[in-house]
């Protein structure tokens, strides 16, 4: 079972779309970033950059202890590896999908080459950008809610 630390933003939706498409069972753990839940010490252990989405996979493929992961692109790659879906296993296949899966327009630092970029590429966090900037004053200096 996967715990998904989530709020209703585009970066959060990337992961719910993947989980729904692949049928992986998951439980939503809401992190209300408008209220500042992302700064809770327990959440920071899972997502040290104080951002959603993040996951804890209680049944990782290697049979080891629960695996926690943050950053939507990294999560998508992990889930693609776990399910064997939406990302070719071979280098040639990955090259074929790479051009179509370039960085999301609003996340120039991101270069996640993944075939489900229909979710990753089309969905940054700009939709919530204005709201998060407006809310920023409520959080500690330099720690305003933001979307990156
Ligand atoms: N590069 C990160 C961006 C994540 C991100 O910006 N999350 C926003 C919501 S969409 C957030 O949690 N903001 C809370 C904050 O900045 O305090 C990813 O792709 O996961």
Summarize the topology.
Elements lengths: L1 E5 L3 H13 L3 E5 L10 H6 L7 E4 L9 E4 L1 H12 L7 H7 L19 H4 L8 H7 L13
The structure holds glutathione.
Q: How do you describe this structure in short?
A:
Helix content is 33%, strand content 12%. It has helices at 10-22, 41-46, 72-83, 91-97, 117-120, 129-135, and strands at residues 2-6, 26-30, 54-57, 67-70. Residues 9, 11, 33, 38, 50-53, 71-73, 125, 128, 145-148 line the site of glutathione.
Give an overview in words.
The chain is built from 6 helices and 4 strands. 32% of the residues are buried. The chain is globular and about 45 Å long. The chain has 148 residues and is an alpha+beta fold. It has one domain: 3-Layer(aba) Sandwich (Glutaredoxin), CATH 3.40.30.10. Helices cover 33% and strands 12% of the residues. The chain binds glutathione. Glutathione binds next to α3.
Strand order of the largest sheet: 2-1-3-4
Hetero compounds:
glutathione
Radius of gyration computed on alpha carbons? 15 Å
What is the name of the CATH topology? Glutaredoxin
Question: Helix proportion of residues, in percent?
Answer: 25-40%
For CATH, the homologous superfamily is named as Glutaredoxin
Uncertain segments: 108-115, 127-131
What does the main sheet amount to? 4 strands, mixed
Secondary structural class? alpha+beta
Query: Would you list the SSEs in sequence order as H and E?
Result: EHEHEEHHHH
Counting DSSP H or I runs of 4 or more residues, the number of helices is: 6
**Kindly, what is the distance between the CA atoms of the first and last residues, rounded to a whole number of angstroms?**
27 Å
Query: What is the number of beta strands?
Result: 4
């Amino acid at each position: 079972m996967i715990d998904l630390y989530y709020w209703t933003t585009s970066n959060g939706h990337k992961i719910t779309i993947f989980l729904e498409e692949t049928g992986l069972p998951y439980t939503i753990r809401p992190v209300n970033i408008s209220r500042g839940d992302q700064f809770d010490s327990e959440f920071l252990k899972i997502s040290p950059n104080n951002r959603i989405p993040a996951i804890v996979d209680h049944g990782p493929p290697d049979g080891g202890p629960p695996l926690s992961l943050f950053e939507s692109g990294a999560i998508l790659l992990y889930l693609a590896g776990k399910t064997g879906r939406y990302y070719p296993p071979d280098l040639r296949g990955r090259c074929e999908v790479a051009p179509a899966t370039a960085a999301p327009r609003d996340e120039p630092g991101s270069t996640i080459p993944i075939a489900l970029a229909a979710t990753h590429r089309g969905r940054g966090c700009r939709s919530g950008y204005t709201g998060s900037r407006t809310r920023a004053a409520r959080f500690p200096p330099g720690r305003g809610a933001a979307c990156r």
